[in-house]
Amino acid sequence: MTELTAPKSSITSSEFADELREQLKYTQGVTVEQATAADVYVAAATAVRRHLMDSWMTTQQDMINGNTKAVGYLSAEFLMGKQLRNALLNAGLTEQFDEAVESLGFDVQDVVDAEYEPGLGNGGLGRLAACFIDSLASLGVPAFGYGIQYKYGIFRQEFDEDGKQVERPDYWLSNEDPWGHIDYGRSQRVNFGGEVVEENGKRVWKPAWAVRAVPVDYMVPGYASGRVNTLRLWQAKSYDEFDLLAFNKSEYMKAVEPQVKAENISKILYPEDSTEVGKELRLEQQYFFTCASIHDAIRVFYPGQDKPDLTTFPDKITFQLNDTHPVIGIPELMRVLIDEYGYDWDTAWTITNKTFNYTCHTLLPEALEVWSAKLIGKLLPRHLEIIKKINEQFMAELTGLTDDAEKIERMRIVTDGKEPAVRMAYLATYAGSHVNGVAELHSQLLKDVTLRDFSDLYDKKFTNVTNGVTPRRFIKLANPRLSNLITEGLGTDKWLEDLDMLEGLVPLAQDDEFVKKFAQVKMDNKIGFSNFAKRNFNIDVDPNTMYNTMIKRLHEYKRQSLKILELIADYADVKAGKLDIDKVTPRTVIFGAKAAPGYYLAKMTIQLINNVAKVVNNDPDIKGKLNVVFVPNYNIRVAQHLIPATELDEQISQAGKEASGTSNMKFALNGALTVGTLDGANVEIRARVGADNFFLFGMTVDEVEAMYANGYDPRKYYESDPRLKGAIDMVASGVFSNGDEDTYEPLVHDWLNKDWFMTLADFTAYHDVQSQIETLYGDQLEWNRKALLNVANSGYFSSDRSIEDYLERIWKTGPMA
User: Fold this and answer.
1) What is the pLDDT of residue 366?
2) pLDDT digits over 155-199, tens only?
3) CB count, 10 Å around CB of 364?
4) CB neighbour class for 530 (10 Å; exposed up to 12, middle 13-18, buried from 19)
5) Which stretches of the chain score pLDDT less than 50?
6) Cβ pair 356, 427 in contact under 8 A
7) Residues forming a β-bridge with 329
8) Where does residue 745 rank: exposed (0-12), middle (13-18), buried (19+ CB within 10 A)?
9) Which of 301, 566, 594, 674 is deepest in the core (most CB within 10 A)?
10) What is the required cofactor set for this protein (predicted)?
11) Residue 68 DSSP code
12) Which residues contact 565 (CB under 8 A, 6 or more apart)?
């Protein structure tokens, strides 16, 4: 690992306070006496950006002038979280900020809370991208993150009186955004539609319309590296002028129609695509940011050159496709090389193949994007021609590799038939240099199942890079109490640069006094979350109960249903007198999840959880022993309060369905024990923290596949387990819907007749492991000893290690000199 120096700034608190006064005066136009906490936040953000500016500019110059290949991380999502605390940490200004803000008469937390969190991601995919660009900067690797600056991020979640999810617009740009620098002078033109014609023996694209991609740059400061990389997000603007004539005729919509059409592209993250119009907008988004990013990279690395030698392009930058959303960039680079720079097909193909690599984040076939060839032809006619030619080349290549006609047909990039479609994952797998999964199990299943035909013939392309999380945000910032204890135990804070150093805590797990200190940190964090929940959501959470947390996107395969059914079964046992309430471990089950607006069963599951909470939390028979909390609008801010407070983490997806997970890593690093299946990165977490420090249950991947093959009947499990039957019957009978037996009928029907992710089949095993959990929790010293061992053995799950794996296995580059 590169030798690094911990960040320190020589500026004093008094000097930083003077900078805040200056920024309040010259950027906000207010005195300290007139200023609000929001004013101080903007002033502080502006000040810390100035401190990072020299490093940012030096990094850019060194990247252009040096010989170190850069990384272009193409992602439709970047779930960054709030920036102020992270920037202060990496600039070495945390203490100065706290003291300066207090000296000006403001509450530090009020100033920090004034920052609005950008919701530019849906979950793990976007948060992983954010962790990765943090680690790239911290390791000193030259990099750009490329994506879209959505005007509205992932929706703001609320619950109505019936417990249903309600989606509200997340207008995160409604207030000042001091972090983003808009650079109109470096915009790019992105074309759409039209036709392709033959001119002088060449295929020429004649677009019908175009939008202007305007870059908004965000600094990505590294920790202890002195490097500041760039996150470049694109805004869509119109080239067409405002139609004053139409406006003066009171034809207001006609006057702004071009602007609206263009700006819709960067309006919202993941527009609903159940309609053709929605699908079209999604494809426009994907092409918009990949096209702009490719042209931008050429501009950056060949400044002022009209006819650069683009055969060197793969030596300048390597593009990582974060899932299938940016895959349209492959035919785009081919088009640029052939149509704009005059390279022949074979040369263009060699350049393209060396430039792109693909990360597949799913094992679910329906999540592998497939676009209608008709739609691509409508929006990007030249690209469809190129894709078809790539497919023809691929088919010809396959005939030389195998005589299995059925396999060749299965591997088509462009499907045959009346309505041909383009399989984007197949295009990425064939056209890129490498394909990686994001956990050992996931990568193996990609090879054995999802992309088996490809791995049979192109085995050397496939590799694994297990995900990771940045310890700067998810331990140092999120859990300062634990950070201080780790530093005390290790005698150094260098572990933030090398998370493997956490292994030094292993001997301390046998020191009862140190374990008790660890337990006190956890209790203080629980109290902290209780106060946070009350202050922000008016939710009461008792810190004297076990904090049992399940936070992740609401999806059937993640099986929030399994957790809520087990909870209902416990409630039923208490009500029936089968379970002595006085012997029940007091437990607060905390959910955080958003369901896609069109995902009917997922939204119904949210409604059920909320209404179970309403019944259980208000039942005097329970005596506060069992509580259910659903935190609305789960985001990075909530995570940074909840994860450090959690004692038991739920990772209960069906085996073989979760690619990796990163919340499981965050929880283990923050001292929670995990109850989970052998799915995703759970396998590696359990291997590293020790089987005795992980609560395992459920079927394996092989057992799941065998059950699929032999026919799965969920009713068999319903009939054979009285607790499960009783829980489902309570839902069906209206106990949690004011007596209305129809409210959850679709959910009950799915459980009993489909249950594709086998919630019912794993229910009994999940119940059985609860006795182990309760027994261990009764011995708090032993529980916390095992929790500390989770922390000590989770250093592998740093995103710094993930990036080092990418550098070695895929990107073949490293830090700048």
Assistant:
1) 74
2) 999 999 999 999 999 999 887 899 999 999 999 999 999 999 999
3) 14
4) buried
5) 1-6
6) no
7) none
8) middle
9) 594
10) pyridoxal 5'-phosphate
11) P
12) 724, 727, 728, 759, 763
CA distance 357 to 436: 8
Match 């008016």 to its residue by tokens.
538
SS3 label, residue 571? helix
Give the pLDDT score at 3. Answer: 33
CB 736 within 8 A of CB 611: yes
3-state helix, strand, coil in the chain (%, to 5): 55, 15, 30
Kindly list the distances between the CA atom of residue 686 and the CA atoms of 102, 515, 651, in Å, as whole numbers in the listed order. 44, 21, 12
Please list, residue by residue across 84-102, b when 16 or more beta carbons sit within 10 angstroms of its beta carbon and e when fewer do.
Answer: bbbbbbbbbbbebbbbbbe
In the structure encoding, which two tokens stand for residue 454, read together? Answer: 């490809």
Given phi > 0 = left and psi -120 to 50 = alpha, else beta, which region is 473?
A: alpha
Distance between CA atoms of residues 479 and 471, nearest Å: 10
Q: Evaluate whether 66-81+117-467+803-811 and 471-797 have a shared fold.
A: yes
CA distances from 798 to 405, 483, 638 (A): 44, 15, 21
**Distance separating alpha carbons of residues 60 and 68, to the nearest angstrom:** 12
Helices vs strands, H then E, count in the chain:
33, 22
| Whether 255 contacts 246, CB under 8 Å | yes
**Quick one: which H or E segment has residue 77?**
none
* Euclidean distance between CA atoms 685 and 468, whole angstroms: 11
Kind plus residue range of the DSSP H or E element containing 281: helix 276-301
Amino acid at 115: E
Return phi, psi of residue 662, to 5°.
Answer: -130, -20
User: Could you give the 3-state DSSP secondary structure of residue 215?
Assistant: strand
- Give the chain's length: 817
pLDDT of res. 5: 41
- For residue 801, the cross-strand partners are none
Under 8 Å between Cβ of 165 and 199: no
Cβ atoms of residues 214 and 181 within 8 Å = no
- Residue 249: the pLDDT is 78
C-alpha 744/C-alpha 434 separation (Å) is 45
Superfamily of domain 471-797 in the CATH hierarchy:
Glycogen Phosphorylase B; (3.40.50.2000)
What per-residue confidence (pLDDT) applies to 708?
A: 95
From the list 680, 580, 664, 592, the residue with the least C-alpha distance to 622 is: 580
Q: Taking the domains of the chain in order of start, what are their residue ranges?
A: 66-81+117-467+803-811, 471-797
Q: Which residues are catalytic?
A: 361, 552-553, 558, 662, 666
* Helix (H), strand (E) at residue 719: helix 714-720
